[in-house]
Amino acid sequence: MQIRGDTEVVAVLGYPVRHSCSPEMHNAAFEALGLNWCYVALEVAPERIEAAFEGIRALGLKGVNVTIPHKEAALRLVDEAGEEARLAGAANTVLNQGGRLKGFNTDVEGFLLAAKEGGVALAGKRVLVLGAGGAARGIGVSLLRAGAESVVVTSRRRERAAALADTLNALAGRAWAAASALEVREMAEAGPYQVVVNVTPAGMWPKVGEMPPAPWEAVAEGAAVLDTIYNPRQTMLLETAAGKGFRTLTGLGMLLYQGALALEIWTGREAPLEVMRQALDRALDLKKSPA
Q: What is the pLDDT of residues 190-231, one digit of tens each?
């Protein structure tokens, strides 16, 4: 790809964001589609996110992805939002239409597509969500949409877990908040958790030695443990879960599908999924020991 004056530019905004494999994934897709587009990663500190959104307009970017910690702010900063972004309370994809910014949430559908591909059934399941940040609300919406029997949200900050549970209850009335390990275990007395989803950044590069606390004794035999982190592929949480005999699913599928949906929003073209998947695999192999 040769970058020229008429090259269309899209980006991912995050903090940190240098670990992202999205540029490799999207640039491979643009090349496969024969599009004169390029995708870059831009590190934006939280206090600069409003200026960054003005920059989208000023520089004429075709759109952006938004990642940790900006997803909730992105919804506030766009001019209009799609239904899933409003339900999730966060936007991870922005389309620039002549200076008017429209926000979308492709995490919701991306998570469901990844779970389906990974053979993880969500309908009728008792689910424990680890984390209550901007991405967790989208995951909660996904779980309810898929027909989960119940969703328990746990977080170090009880007020965030309670706020997310209240939001999910307003949608479907099947969510509860738990702030302590004891509460998490007590809520499992009616039946152990059959699916566990990590939506915290614990274990993400470069802090690969971290993992969120998980109440393994409250998790059902044969349960599925899903991580939304993709770098590294196998987080400490997933390695621990696999060692205990649980099924595991990395965050790579969610990254792939949310990215494919974002590309289709920006370009109006069908995403080349296998090209994007292969590009992600290559990028992660190169970033096993990031500089």
A: 899 999 999 998 998 888 999 999 999 999 999 999 999 998
**Mean pLDDT confidence for 257-280:** 98
What 3 state SS string does the chain have?
A: CCCCCCCEEEEEEECCCCCCCHHHHHHHHHHHHCCCEEEEEEECCHHHHHHHHHHHHHHCCCEEEECCCCHHHHHHHCCEECHHHHHHCCCCEEEEECCEEEEECCHHHHHHHHHHHCCCCCCCCEEEEECCCHHHHHHHHHHHHCCCCEEEEECCCHHHHHHHHHHHHHHCCCEEEECCHHHHHHHCCCCCEEEEEECCCCCCCCCCCCCCCCCHHHEEEEEEEEECCCCCCCCHHHHHHHHCCCEEECCHHHHHHHHHHHHHHHHCCCCCHHHHHHHHHHHHHHCCCCC
Greater model confidence, 189 or 65? 65
One domain for residues 267 and 181: no
Residue 18 lies in a domain: yes
pLDDT value at residue 290: 38
Query: pLDDT, tens digit, for every residue of 1-20?
Result: 678 888 999 999 999 898 89
The tally of domains found in the chain comes to 2
User: Are residues 142 and 21 part of one domain?
Assistant: no
Q: Are residues 282 and 234 in the same domain?
A: no
Q: What pLDDT digit, counting tens, does each position of 97-140 carry? A: 999 999 999 999 999 999 999 999 999 999 999 998 778 888 99
For residue 229, give its domain range. 108-250
- The verdict on 115 and 23 lying in the same domain is no
Check if 71 is active-site: yes
Which is the catalytic residue, given 71, 125, 244, 287? Answer: 71
User: Which CATH number belongs to the domain containing residue 118 in this structure?
Assistant: 3.40.50.720
